[in-house]
Each structure stands twice: as C-alpha cells, then as structure tokens.
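User: Please run a holo structure prediction.
Assistant: Happy to. Please share the sequence and the ligand.
User: Here you go; the ligand is iron/sulfur cluster.
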Amino acid sequence: MKEGVIALTKRFKVVLNTKWCKSCGICVEFCPKKVFEFTSDGKVRVMREEMCVGCRSCELRCPDYAVEVREGEEE
Amino acid sequence: MLDIKKYLRLSKLPHIWCPGCGNGSVVRALIMAVDKLGLSKDEIVLFTGIGCSARTNVIVDFNTIQTTHGRTLAFATGFKLMRPDMKVIVITGDGDGAAIGGNHLIHAARRNIDITTILINNSIYGMTGGQYSPLSPQGTYATTAPYGNIEPSFDICKLVEAAGATFIARSTVYHIQLTADLIAKAIAHKGFSFIEVVSQCPVGYGRRNRMRTPYEMLMWQKEHAVLVQQAQRYSLEEMKDKFLIGELFVNKEKREYTELYEELRRKLAEGGEG
Amino acid sequence: MSLKEDVRFMQGNEAIAEAAILAGVRFFAGYPITPATEIAEMMALRMPQVGGVFIQMEDEIASIAAVIGASMAGFKAMTATSGPGFTLMQENLGYATIVDIPCVIVDVQRGGPSTGLPTLPAQGDVMQARWGTHGDHPIVVLCPATVQEAFELTIEAFNISELIRNPVILLSDAVVGHVREKVTLPDPSRIRIVNRRVTNLPPEQYKPFAAGPDGVPDFAYRGKGYRYHVTSNVHDEEGFPATYNHKVANELIRRLHKKIEFYRKEITYYKTYRVEDSDVLIVAYGCTARSAKDAVNMLREGGIRAGLLQLQTLWPFPGEVVEGYAKRAKVVVVPEMNMGQLVGEVERCICRKAVRINRVDGKMISPWEIVDAIKEVFSHA
Ligand SMILES: Cc1ncc(C[n+]2csc(CCOP(=O)(O)OP(=O)(O)O)c2C)c(N)n1
Ligand code: SF4
Ligand code: SF4
Ligand code: SF4
C-alpha cells in the first residue's frame, strides 16, 4: 500500500465461467460499471474488472450461474 | 454469502434453457429462500410437471421428481399426505399449472394442503415452441395466435385465492430478491402457498412480441410491476396495464389438510367417532 | 398360537378392500364411479382406522397421480374405478411404468364404450388394460371370477406390484364386484406379503434405476440422503433424462419388459376344471368363468368331455399354458362379454380358430349359451 492513500479500495475478481455463460447480455446491461462487454463474435467477456465495485448485480441476475464476484486482497 | 453451488447438481450444468431464460433465476431465488430458511437438502422434495419450467428440478440437489403435464399437484398431494414431515415444493408453468393442471391447482388450494407452488409465468408455452397459454395477455402473438391472441387471460392469483389457498404472492424475475423473500415466506407458511413469478421466455415470447432482448423483457417486468404497498399511489387507469407484486393474501386461520387428517386418525385411535 | 380362519359373506368390492388392507395398503385415492364406488367407501372408513390415508380426489387423473405420489413416498397405494375413469388414468399409468413405481388399480368393468351401461357388467377393458397407455410398457393384469378370488388376487396384485415395481391391474367386473358370497379369510399370519426391495447401498453409490438380472431396481426412501431424480422421460440409471441417447432408451425399455419375463412363471395364475381328458376346452376368465364351469358339468352330463381353463392372469398372456391345455382338445371355446378380445391371443397361441361366444348387452353369458354353442359345433362335426 502506498503512503498517502487514505481510502482503502477493495478489489474484486469477476470470474466468468465461459462454459456456462450463454452470452444473454443481462450482466452487460445491469453492471453499473460496464465491466462486461460483447466481443465482436457475440460472446460476453469481462473487459474492465478493475472498475468493479462489488455490487454483485451480475451474479444475482445471471440466469446461468456463470458469474462469481470474489473479494480480492485489499490494496 | 450464499454458495449457490452447494445446492446445484454441477454435472447437470450448463442447463438446457435458452440464453436469458428466466427459469435459471427462479431456481436461484428458490435456493436463496432455502438457504435463508436453513433447510437441509434432504428434507425438500421438489416436484415439477412438463415444460421448460419442469427442467428446474434437474439441476438442484434436492429430492426431485418430475411428473406428467399438469398433474404435479396431485402427485405431490399423495406424497405429502404420506410424508408430512417433508417440505413439498412444486414448480409449474403457466400452461402446466393454469391450463392442463388448473383443476388440480384449484383443489390443492381448496384443501389447503401444506405445499408451496411456484408458477413460472412466462406468458407462453415455451417447450413446445411458443403457443399461447391462459396467461398470455390478449392481443399478444404466439405460433397459435398468428393474428394476435383474442382470448382473455385471467389472474391466476385471484383464482387460487378464491379456491382457498392461504398464502398468495406475486413477483418477477427482475425483482429477484423479493421473489426469494416471498418464496421463503411461502415455504415457512403452513398451508397451501402459491407464488406467481412473472418471467421471461425470450425465444418463445419476447421475439414475437417486440422485446428483442432478455434485458428488455426484464425492464418490461420492472415497469409493469407495482408493489402492493404502493398501489394506492396509482389511479385505476394507471393500473390497467400493470400488475401487483408482493404478498397479496394471507390467511392464518384456515386449518391445514394433513393436520386435519392426522387429527382424524388420532381421534379414531382414541376410540372416538372421528 | 392358534390360526384362525374367518368365514364371512362379502361383496367382491368389499373383499378387495379388506384384502388390500391385509396386503399392507396405506393409501387410497379415488373418484366415485359405479360399480366400483363401494371400494372407495370402504377405504374411507378403514384407512384412517389402520393409520393410512383415504382421499377423494377431483378426478381419476388426480387419483392415480396421488397414488403414485404416495407410492413414491414408499407406501403401498391403490385406486379403484370403472371404464370411464380407467381411461382417464392411462397417461399416469404409463408414467408409473417408466419410473418403476408399484401401485394397484382396480377396474370394475361395466359396459362401454363411454358411459355405456353404467351398472351392468362387461369384459370390454381387456385390451385397454393391456394397451391403454401409449408406448411399449410392461403391465400385469389379474382377473377374479369369485369373491374369494377377488380377495386372493388383490393380495397377489400388491405382491406382484411390489416384486416387480410396476402397476398391477385387478380387472374385476360388475358381477364379481357386487355379488355376495362366502369367503374364507385366512389367518393373517398365513398370508404371504411381499414388499419392495430396498437398497442397502449408501447414497453416494445408489443408482435409482440400476437393476440386477431381474430388471427390478432397488427402492430408496426419501429424506435420508438419497436425493435422486425421477423423470417421465427416458432416463439413465441415475434417473436423469437421456432423451437423445438411443442406447439408454433401448436399454431402459428392454429392462422394463425384462421384469415381466423374468418373473413370468411366478405371476401366472390360472385354474383348471376337469381338463384331464377334455375334447372341448373352454378358456374363460372373470364372471364368464362362472358360467363356463357350469357349462362343463352340463356338457359332461350330455356326454361331451369338456374342461375349463380359467385364466386369472390375463397379461402377460399365459400363452404356453393355453397352448398346453389346448393340445388335446378338438375344440377350443372362448366366451367373453365383449366382441372378442382375448380370443385373438388364444388363437395366436394355439395356431387355429377358436369358437367365439360374445355378448355385449350387459347380460352375463349363461351356461346354456355355452352348451348350445358347443353342441352346435358337434352337430356339424
Ligand atoms: C398431456 C400432454 N399434452 C401436451 C404435452 C406437450 N407439452 C409439453 S410442454 C407443454 C407446454 C408447457 O408450457 P408451460 O407450462 O407454459 O411451460 P414452459 O415450457 O413455458 O416453461 C406442452 C403442451 C405433453 N407433454 N403432455
Ligand atoms: S448474464 Fe450470465 S449468461 Fe448472461 S451474458 Fe452474463 S454471464 Fe453470460
Ligand atoms: S459486481 Fe457489480 S460492478 Fe462488479 S461486475 Fe458485477 S455488476 Fe459490475
Ligand atoms: S423456450 Fe422459453 S421458457 Fe423454454 S428455455 Fe427457452 S426461453 Fe426458457
């Protein structure tokens, strides 16, 4: 941790199980931080994990149980 | 934190439903409810009938029994009477539960037998490819309503209330936390409990009815659902194309069926006339 | 301990109810229909007395569904009905066969089709009992001719159904159902009771639809760690749908049929009367066998050596038995209260024509009708 950083920012790991994900786009729409994106071939992927605020909206709404949000180490 | 995998049959995943289908979310809500209540997987029997909704019990690690189209509540009634110690839950669809199984739904509600029924209402017959159901709104399109459905639909919650159920609620897949909370209440309720979950079938219904994505369908749910506590804020006119969600009806007075039967047996054993 | 036999006058329907209780039935679901209603009424009275459950369901579809549900919970369960109700039960009957769930269905036959002759006897459901539900399925059908037989075959119906984990149909009729006759009830300790085999494997190793050489899987009670799946679809040994797997489908359907073949001898019941030297063999079942027996005596008095083969197991059709007894007979006669249903099976097995006697007007076939038909054959010979 760097000197002078006052707030502790939590980091989250957004784990996408690509075997279960059906690229329905629900997480893409509901993520407040636009962490997910469609690739050019229509697959949903985690693109901006560092933006994740851990709201777990994606996890709760994924009808395929394909996303898991894990709390990472504090930095 | 809920460890959903603890309740799933991982070898049966990914499940067979289409992308964005609401069934997976209903299963999640059920698992959230079971987890909240602290029930063991062994004490739950999850019955289903036929349809996409019936596939819900393939993926959960409870005692799971899929039966014939519409007849689930009758099977579950026989089971529950012999094993009143077990939590019997039924998942059905709008065709399975409100069309072919409508009569069994009415009579299970009338008896007030301690079974929790979750009716996934996706406004369509999903499994057979998109035919209209008794809960498809008038004017919507289906493969068997290519010119628009001229049949009026009905309010299944009101029907079940009139039939005598003692816990009735409605929710949506969009309101998944509410759905989980209501399922938990329904399971904890002694008597026949019923919850209608308005869900999305993007493939059989959405595509034909100007909702291109699962997201749009979820937003439709959000915009058309009104929490029962907030219903007064809306005029009758405004409520016309909306529906109520939340706990709609509770009756704690009416006696439960298996209990009444047990009481009858006890009286006979004591030498009474019953 | 002294054994005590109990001699009583009973109606057929009453005997069925009493026998079922002795066989261990603890769940009855039904819907009123003549001429079967007395069984439900008896059960409404008796079930709660013996710690069981009686429920009047909203229809026959629900009745058999509840029965299967109760049997899935591990209890012996039954329903009773007549033609129209039996027809409604067919889909769920098929369900019970594909998921290896035992249960007993009593069909007290009346004249059909449709509501037909609501209070009068018939034997028109022989083929429905065999082929009423769709698809290739195993089934056992037992058919009593007297109240005593109704009693005994009810117990056997439960025993067979538990032994092979399959529905068994007791095909009675309005005559046997309503006639009042002397019945000797054996001492309960003398009654052979069969219960379904229960697994001794731990839950991790248990496969609900895996079976040994007899094709019958072991049962596991719920609530004790055995959280297996059951589906009406073609399924693998673990119970999960395998609807795109031809091999699994083939194995499952063949296993279901193997159960019957494996136990065929044990589940074949029949009676013979004066067949040792018979030139005329009457093959009959149910209430018609009563008249056939009298006809045998009358024919013998008239110098015709007749004998009776009374089939109690109709399905699986005891072809070898029929073939064996028909061998020395010059004439085989099949009287039935239908347009000729079982006679086709008989002819198939004996490879020649049988004399048919059929009646569909709600009246029993009388001994004289049988005698006359046979005399007629001999007058041309
Ligand atoms: C007796 C019978 N009739 C018809 C069918 C065909 N069938 C299978 S699923 C289904 C409709 C299911 O619709 P619904 O209950 O709305 O469930 P969903 O598939 O939408 O979840 C039908 C008609 C059947 N299996 N059995
Ligand atoms: S919601 Fe789930 S299934 Fe849909 S795209 Fe996101 S991760 Fe994939
Ligand atoms: S937890 Fe919230 S912020 Fe993080 S990826 Fe999921 S939806 Fe986006
Ligand atoms: S057809 Fe509809 S209900 Fe069935 S799986 Fe697909 S989206 Fe779900």
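The beta strands of chain B are 44-48, 63-66, 87-93, 115-121, 167-172, 193-198, 225-227, 243-250.
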